[in-house]
Every structure is written in C-alpha cells, then in structure tokens.
Design a protein that fits this description.
By secondary structure, the chain is α+β, with helices and mostly antiparallel strands. It is 43% helix and 14% strand. It is elongated and about 55 Å long. The chain starts with a strand and ends in a 6-residue tail after the last helix.
Length: 129
C-alpha cells in the first residue's frame, strides 16, 4: 500500500554528487535512493511501496514461462510474479466469499426447490428432469 515518504527518507543528489551511504541507487533523474534491508522500494511521485523479500520454490518450466513473459512485457520477473499472485489472491478471495455467502443462504433456507429449478429450465426450453 503506498505511503507518503517521511521527511529525510530520500536524499536528493544530482548526477555530479555521490551518495553518502553505501548501496544507494541512482534513478534516471539523478535521485539517490538508499536501499532498505529486507525491503524493496518503489518510488512513484513521492510515494513508496515497501515490499518484503521472500523465497519460494518454483518449477523450472513455470519460471521459464515467467521469464519469457517478463521479456515480452519488458518487465521484471518480480513484477510478473507479483501480478500473478495478486490476480490469484483476488480470485481465490472472491471465490471463498461467494461459497461462504452461499452456505449462509442455505442455512437461512434461502434456496430454490427442485421444482422451482425445473420450472426455470422449462422456461428456457431445457429439460432438467
């Protein structure tokens, strides 16, 4: 989740200056960004998103697909993996909520009878019996 950069978090240095802290990275506009241990930092219009680093085991063929897609999209491997995980979680969270909502309807007795379902299918010209 984006957060506002606290004062002093980033040191603005131009191309001619060198970073005071070891391991600082220079962006294309000459802004130096100090690396934060255990986190990656994305800077976009004075907002940062902190991302924890983790390790996962990935099948070679899947990783090859990720790398191929990253090259095709001109994106990093990390970006492709984050997008895939985000989309997977969005779907799974939606699915779990729908199942929970459906079970709650069953518990309340808010379900269609067999006859009601057959009548609906007959309306569409389908024999469901």
């Amino acid at each position: 989740m984006p957060v506002k950069i606290p004062p002093g978090f980033l040191q603005q240095k131009r191309h001619s200056s060198k970073p005071k802290l070891p391991g600082a990275l220079r962006s294309p506009d000459g802004l130096y960004i100090q690396h934060i241990q255990m986190y990656s930092v994305r800077v976009h219009q004075w907002e940062v998103t902190l991302m924890k680093t983790t390790t996962v085991r990935i099948d070679d063929t899947i990783l090859e697909r990720v790398d191929n897609l990253a090259r095709t999209l001109s994106r990093s491997r990390s970006w492709v993996i984050n997008q895939a995980i985000d989309r997977f979680l969005d779907y799974e969270e939606w699915f779990v909520k729908e199942v929970e909502d459906g079970l709650a309807e069953v518990e309340k007795g808010e379900i269609a009878t067999h006859e009601e379902i057959e009548a609906k299918f007959r309306k569409w010209g389908v024999n469901a019996g």
